[in-house]
Amino acid sequence: MKNRNLFANVWAQRALILAVLLIIMLIGNRSFFSLGNLRTILMSIAIYGTMCCGMLLCMLTGGIDLAMGSTAAFTSVVCLWYYNGHGMTDGAFVVGLILAIACAVAVGILHGICDAYLMLPSFVVTLATSKLLYGLASALLKGSFIHLTNTEGFFYKIANTKLFGAIPMPIVIFLAAALIVGLILALTVFGRRVYAVGANRAAAELVGIKSRSFRVGCYVICSLSACLGGIVLTSMNYITSATTAQGYEMMIMLALVVGGADIMGGYGDIAGAVFGALLAGIVENMIVMLNINTNYSKAVQGVIIVLAVAFNVYNNRKSAGLIAPRRKRAEAAPKKEA
Amino acid sequence: MSEEMILRTENICKSFNGIQVLKNVNLEIRKGEIHALMGENGAGKSTIIKIITGVYTKDDGEIYIDGRHVVINNRHDAAEAGISVIYQELSLVPELTVTENIFLGHELMKRGLPDRKEMRRQVQELIDRYGFLLHPDEVVASMGMAQRQMTEILKALSTDAKLLIMDEPTTSLSASETEQLFVTMEGLRERGTSILYISHRLEEIYRVTDRLTIMRNGEVVGVVDSKTVQADTVTAMMIGHELEKTAQRTPNVNYQHCIEVKDLSLGNLLHDIHFKAYGGEILGIGGLVGSGRTELVSCIYGAMKNYKGTITLDGKPVSRSVARNIRAGFGMVPEDRRTEGFFPQLSILRNIAISSYDRLSSLGFVKAGAENSHAEKAIADYDVRPAMKKLPLQNLSGGNQQKVILARWLSRDVDVLILDEPTVGVDVGVKAELYVYMRRLADKGAIIIMVSSDLAELTEVSDRVLVLHGGTFFQEFRDHQATQQAVLLASSGVAAKEGVVL
Question: Is B337 among the domain residues?
Fold first, then answer.
């Protein structure tokens, strides 16, 4: 009963935050509510939203991957470099994609081994590999850009077609990724075990879950989602370089934390992650629509995100019994005076 | 040693929530003596210590230091009165040197800067005076446990402590380090410092203490001279009158179904371990904390893999993989439920089902209906309260958390159940319930191995008790021969007449 109330509260709070923002826009700029603008918002979050889905798994098991952006950059550079070098055929794209996937898997395994087996702090390791991957991509391109020029090939079409002629492919990919990860978490044994490993590794080992290889697996999925994001982003922009998707890992982290995921693992869900990404997208869009001076836009984003995180932390502590219900505190107060 | 008292307490009483935990405790410690305080878990040892050191406030009674009446309301008052505690978990900062640690928080200053020279000189003086094997500039992190403890003692002495309280100081020390500590303690005694020493180990009490106060159920039951008293007298006083066993059950033991451990050794902790555990009986494993009991059962379960020797179930070798063993019908309730037992943020349902997805899934997909009814049945069968399957386990009481962990295994009818301290932090009512569930499983023919430090539990719940001492099994008690006193003696390496010495 208590738990159901809490759940209702979380969504009530999320609805409240959204309602406040929507009312502001109702007064500020009605064109915010157009279908076209909704598409703009979704397009702006589609790439890191897709990457969020992989990162969620990683974070649920207690890991963190700050090399998401650079993994996206490196793998997309590898793919497009091979593609351009081998006649820009669909066959070349497939080989390039396989190469990119292999790179992503290698990066994921490296992260997983460093964290789960060597017990190195994951945020340091992934920050280091992030530098490494940007460096490698930059060396491969000798510091320049690489363009996607074949507008007839499959590579170009990935991001530049519309489902039912209306929904851009990146949005479809984002929603599909969210749906798949959501279903994995809700319906499969793998999903159950992800939460268990994140909640208590030692206990997970004692119920027969190989928590280490599990965490490695989640890092691999995380890197694969970065690879997917990088490929779609390249297709969207017809260009990639070593600085593609730079800083996305921070947006991803923010979206997940705003969405209620616990950095320590064991807590969070896909609905929250999508909400977090959506909120970030809406806020960014609002700032543009309201003609807020760009000098303030980052600060406004920061304030809204801190508020959302504060809500979450409060909820988590309340459910863990760390904050006394208001009634009890009121009872306790007069005693002190006496 | 003089007859003067450094510390005297008079009729100390303390209750928690209406339950009296200390009844008129009179404790007398002489100047320059090492005085042991003994008693079973829950006898009130730590409560009286916490009152003397100002952590708890007493309900009634008086405390005298050096014959003067003192009021101790907080730790500061205790330090002022010259009482210092050496905690089990040392409170040193590993990155700092001996000198820096000793003066931490009350550094000597000279012209607004710490006067390192003077502090170092004072520490060196202390070290010389007590003859410790320490260097004032050594960094704590680079020292062994015994030296760290010495530093802690030195810190206490630097504030002119007249009474040192040491709470189980030897648990983390090796044999040679323990000896070093004892020599240090004897040195302190010669210089007139009194020590109140708390330990479960009888041999240490004999080795180093002068007198011994024994507590039971919140009362002092005797003060004896350590040099003359017999071990069995001490244990008898600690345990008190043993209840007559009610209705001796004869378990329906199936000797065909058994786990056999042969020649097991693990590092330098365990050696030459041989035993069999049979279906239908609850086998108790006794011994002191740190004697290797937890490690032994972890080897059987497959959670520790680096052992030598063979473990077989019905003649077939037992795997060193936990997952494989679970599929073969094993289950384990670990020692520390918070760190290795349950998943705090996850629901009761998921905590129960987590071990049984081999049966509750097909092709990797969870059969939600089966999962639900499995958990609901377990919640009802083992009376988990509140019976709300979606509630995160962290919101349950300790007893109910333990029920959930037990239910995780009982609900899948395990064939081998390993229990490590199954009722720690569980209230009496739930304890009795847990025993019923365990016995029911044994009656179905399962092998149950239970490690316990609770002597009443070990002697009353198990059908057979094996006691570990010195890295191997020391004594076996069959057919309800085990008495609390005998088990306690065997844990310290003293053979009691009832059991079979191995």
Answer: no
Inter-chain touch A208–B355, beta carbons under 8 Å: yes
Reported as a pLDDT band with limits 50, 70 and 90, residue A329 is very low
- Name the domain count of chain B: 3
Compute CA distances B173 → B136, B148, B310, B494, whole Å: 22, 11, 30, 22
- Residue A215: inside a domain, yes or no? yes
| List of chain B residues whose C-beta atoms are within 8 Å of the C-beta of residue A193 | 354, 357
3-state per-residue secondary structure call for A203-223: HHHHCCCCHHHHHHHHHHHHH
Q: Smallest Cβ distance to B323: which of A192, A210, A321?
A: A210
Query: What H or E segment, with its residue span, contains residue A125?
Result: helix A122-140
Q: Give the whole-angstrom CA distance, residue B404 versus residue B342.
A: 8
Q: What is the pLDDT of residues B87-110, one digit of tens each?
A: 766 678 888 999 998 888 778 888
pLDDT at B242: 59
User: What residues of chain B have any CB closer than 8 angstroms to a CB in chain A?
Assistant: 301, 303, 321-327, 332, 334, 339-347, 350, 353-355, 357, 361, 364-366, 368, 388, 390-392, 394-395, 408
pLDDT in tens, B185-208: 888 888 888 999 987 777 788 888
Residue A229: name the closest of A25, A18, A49, A88 by CA.
A49
Helix ranges (DSSP H) in B88-166: 98-102, 116-130, 145-158
- Cα distance between residue A62 and residue B254, in whole Å: 45
Using a CB–CB cutoff of 8 Å, tell me whether A207 touches chain B: yes
CATH code, domain carrying A145: 1.10.3470
Q: How confident is the model at residue A251, as a pLDDT?
A: 86
Residue-range definition of the domain harbouring residue B253? 245-329+415-502
Tell me the HSE value of B18 on the side-chain side, using a 13 A CA sphere.
0
pLDDT tens-place string over residues B39-58? 876 678 888 888 898 888 88
Give the closest-approach CA distance of B327 to chain A in angstroms: 9
Whether A336 has a pLDDT exceeding 60, the answer reads no
- A-to-B residue pairs, Cβ atoms closer than 8 angstroms: 97
Q: State pLDDT tens for residues B330-378.
A: 999 998 888 899 999 899 999 999 999 999 999 999 999 999 999 999 9
Helix (H) or strand (E) segment spanning residue B208: helix B202-208
Q: Do A107 and A129 touch, CB atoms closer than 8 A?
A: yes
Instruction: Supply the CATH number for residue B186's domain.
Output: 3.40.50.300
